[in-house]
Amino acid sequence: EAGVAQSPRYKIIEKRQSVAFWCNPISGHATLYWYQQILGQGPKLLIQFQNNGVVDDSQLPKDRFSAERLKGVDSTLKIQPAKLEDSAVYLCASSPLADGRAFFGQGTRLTVV
Amino acid sequence: GENVEQHPSTLSVQEGDSAVIKCTYSDSASNYFPWYKQELGKRPQLIIDIRSNVGEKKDQRIAVTLNKTAKHFSLHITETQPEDSAVYFCASREYGNKLVFGAGTILRVKS
Question: Using CB atoms within 10 A of its CB, is residue A30 exposed (0-12), middle (13-18) or buried (19+)?
Answer without folding.
Answer: middle
